[in-house]
């Protein structure tokens, strides 16, 4: 499994706006190799709000295919981002170990 992340800083009080933005941008569910999407909000006291965009993929190639697709360009076009502070900080990870509750 491959996980891509993007750390976003958002001007207060626009955290709910970012959440709504991602709710409205769905569509990943139909992308080949896509497994799961999560939007995490940090619980820190700061001058800004911090979010981590987390997407899970079957492989690095599936993620790369998505980022080079027309669907990706459409999903990111016209995005109102004046409350997002600067570019995000993207990272990628290969999942090496998973543990979960039984049952």
Can you walk through the features of this model?
The structure is a single chain. This protein has helices at 15-24, 60-67, 70-76, and strands spanning 2-11, 34-41, 48-57, 89-94. It has a four-stranded antiparallel β-sheet. It is 24% helix and 33% strand. With 103 residues, it is α+β, with helices and mostly antiparallel strands. It is built from three helices and four strands, in the order βαββααβ. The model has no long low-confidence stretch (mean pLDDT 91).
Keywords:
single chain, globular, 24% helix, 3 helices, 33% strand, 103 residues, alpha+beta, four-stranded antiparallel beta sheet
SSE order: EHEEHHE
Overall body shape: globular
- Spans where pLDDT lies below 50 across 5 or more residues: none
Mean of the pLDDT scores? 91
Quick rundown:
This protein is α+β, with helices and mostly antiparallel strands. It contains three helices and four strands, in the order βαββααβ.
What's the layout of helices and strands?
Layout: E1 2-11, H1 15-24, E2 34-41, E3 48-57, H2 60-67, H3 70-76, E4 89-94
Antiparallel strand pairs: 1-3, 1-4, 2-3
